[in-house]
Amino acid sequence: MQVIRHSEQTLKTALISKNPVLVSQYEKLDAGEQRLMNEAFQPASDLFGPITLHSPSDWITSHPEAPQDFEQFFSDPYRKTPSPDKRSIYIQSIGSLGNTRIISEEYIKWLTGYCKAYFYGLRVKLLEPVPVSATRCSFRVNENTQNLQIHAGDILKFLKKKKPEDAFCVVGITMIDLYPRDSWNFVFGQASLTDGVGIFSFARYGSDFYSMRYEGKVKKLKKTSSSDYSIFNNYCIPEITSVLLLRSCKTLTHEIGHIFGLRHCQWLACLMQGSNHLEEADQRPLNLCPICLRKLQCAIGFNIVERYKALVRWIDDESSDTPGATPEHSREDNGNLPKPVEAFKEWKEWIIKCLAVLQK
């Protein structure tokens, strides 16, 4: 196990910058917001800690990258920022997300509500769900795991064509595994920052994906032509548990963060850390470190207290209703399913501690 610990001065510069314009911008923040963000360079902070590497296969070790401080983020000429006429995040589900239509609809509403709170101040809208066949994507059976996979690049092209005029970005979500190219085993997600589109799979977040009893194995791919998508009619969908919901929220917000121009975080334990495998993704927190929080606040312009309160409301709200985000097609009148938020309770306690610092 290795701990990556930066000096107080390094973290302070990464957060505030030495550029007088950015220092002045920081000093104009609310006193509570400054107090919270200053926790980044407090060695004894119990809110933000150093990055811990648990194995040689962890992201930072195997994918060396230059770190991105706030000044580099702010000065990036290629960074995309929401504009007054492009302030909507669209979510496109591809294939079924649950074993029934009701579960599918509730699950995507939970994700939509979470994104609304996480990217507080932006609109989050749902596009009408589509089957895999609508994307005309390539697909295969993975030689190692024998599960179905769809081509991430083809999905990105489909999403680009569907992008509405008022969209800041469009993100596709699916319960089918992804591959980016023939030589790769799989990928959790892929995004095009230039086009403002991304596709993310939650297939490997089910509890039994890596077990011998996984029901999604396909012995042989049988298709009459490249346009025969009948194999997806009854593909295996994991049960929507609290852990799966947490993992889904984590991946979705991490990848949308990239579309805002946030690179992988190498400063403190943070949602924007890279992850090479599921164990590492599980160790990554739901929250942004102060450096990445300042980046996102700069991009969107939210009040941090209001954002944290919205996240607490999402956790506390047993209902899945997300006003204005319901798909247009009718729903069976079965009432709302209870939102499985048990896995978020520890994070809620952390947010409440942050609110205490902000409002002191």
Structure description:
- The protein has 360 residues and is α/β, with parallel strands linked by helices.
- It folds into 2 domains: 2-78 and 268-321 and 338-359, no CATH class; 88-256, Collagenase (Catalytic Domain).
- It contains 12 helices and 10 strands.
- α6 links the parallel β3 (88-94) and β4 (123-126).
- α11 (304-316) packs antiparallel against α12.
- The longest helix is centred in the N-terminal third of the chain and has 18 residues, at 101-118.
- The radius of gyration is 20 Å and the shape is globular.
- The model is unreliable at 320-334 (pLDDT under 50).
What topology emerges from the helices and strands here?
Blueprint: E1 2-4, H1 8-16, H2 20-27, H3 31-37, E2 51-53, H4 59-62, H5 70-75, E3 88-94, H6 101-118, E4 123-126, E5 139-141, E6 148-151, H7 152-162, E7 167-174, E8 177-179, E9 189-192, E10 197-201, H8 242-259, H9 278-283, H10 290-300, H11 304-316, H12 345-358
Parallel strand pairs: 3-4, 3-7, 6-8, 7-10
Antiparallel strand pairs: 1-2, 5-6, 9-10
Helix pairs in contact: 1-10, 6-8, 6-11, 11-12
Weakly predicted, low-confidence segments: 320-334
- How is the main sheet built? 5 strands, mixed
Q: Sum up the overall morphology in one term.
A: globular
Calculate the mean pLDDT score and round it.
Answer: 90
